Amino acid sequence: MLPFNSLRIVCLSRALVHPNWPMSNRQSVYKTVTCSAHFMSISFLKDIWNSNMHLKSLGKERKIIYYSNPVSSHRNYCTGQVQLNCWNCRQPLDTTPAFFCMSCKVVQPPEEGTSYFKIMNCDYTFTLDIHKLQKRYLQLQRSLHPDNFSQKSEKEQEYSESHSALVNKAYQTLLKPLSRGLYMLELEGMHIEEGTDSGADLEFLMELMEINEALDKARTPEEANKIGQDTKRKLAVLTEEIDAALLKGELQAAKALLSQMKYHANIEEKVKEKLSEFM
């Protein structure tokens, strides 16, 4: 009979050889191996990392696990499974992402691969709580702003700058529905740019042309406001449809709906410009 640790290694090997296994099976094998990873040699761990197997857990949480290749530090090694330690006092970090050490109060480096939703403490949903997002943003920027670390060590200044920039990027991405939706598609493995067009059909493009022409011909604030209200209603419907598509995992449908949202969002901006002309 093989030793217990050897059995874990064999299971992992089979998961790598058979990529067509159901993801739930491969994920459970992965968890079994990583939980016992501290029994394995560093050289063996490097072999696993070099396989470049990027496994993604399924389900409502949709957490993504990133690997570093090669393993360069304890912070990069499967942060979802291994306890991280403070770089200054070496005490365990209680939370993830850990912005500060609870023991020595020193700012920590950003954790590689942490999603914007986790950084901003938001639910993984297209219809997230904007008020909560804004509150979290202000809280983090107050505590992590580089000005607070001007008298600290060079390393702390560097980490605060990295955190501040990352928090700002996360906030800006999640704040607007379009960039938020595109980011969610990226988390699901669909790498697209914000300006990517999903190929709108002719009927939809003709409808947009008529709306734009009507807006150009608007001669009163009331006429422009009517177009603006119609656009807001369409954006609200699209928001619900995109949320439903993402929840069902219908990524191509979500991408097409996000393309429509982009056009209507542009019209909404044009309405604001038109209204400013009447002031």
UniProtKB/TrEMBL annotation:
SMART domains documented for this protein: DnaJ
Residues making up the signal peptide according to the UniProt record: none
GO BP term, pick one: protein complex oligomerization
Gene Ontology cellular-component terms listed: mitochondrion
GO terms assigned for molecular function: ATPase activator activity; metal ion binding; protein-folding chaperone binding
Pathway connected to this protein: Cofactor biosynthesis; iron-sulfur cluster biosynthesis
Main localization category: cytoplasm
Protein's cellular compartments: Cytoplasm; Mitochondrion
Domain of life from the UniProt record: Eukaryota
Domain J: 115-187
Protein family: Belongs to the HscB family.
PANTHER family hit by this protein: IRON-SULFUR CLUSTER CO-CHAPERONE PROTEIN HSCB
Assembly and oligomerization: Interacts with ISCU and HSPA9 to form an iron-sulfur transfer complex. Interacts with SDHAF1 (via the first LYR motif); the interaction recruits the iron-sulfur transfer complex composed of HSC20, HSPA9 and ISCU and mediates the incorporation of iron-sulfur clusters into SDHB which also interacts with HSC20. Interacts with the cytoplasmic form of ISCU and with CIA complex member CIAO1 (via LYR motif). Homodimer. Interacts with ISCU (cytoplasmic form); this interaction stabilizes the (Fe-S) clusters on ISCU. Interacts with the CIA complex member CIAO1 (via LYR motif).
Function: Acts as a co-chaperone in iron-sulfur cluster assembly in mitochondria. Required for incorporation of iron-sulfur clusters into SDHB, the iron-sulfur protein subunit of succinate dehydrogenase that is involved in complex II of the mitochondrial electron transport chain. Recruited to SDHB by interaction with SDHAF1 which first binds SDHB and then recruits the iron-sulfur transfer complex formed by HSC20, HSPA9 and ISCU through direct binding to HSC20. Plays an essential role in hematopoiesis.
Name this polypeptide is given: Iron-sulfur cluster co-chaperone protein HscB
Organism: Sander lucioperca
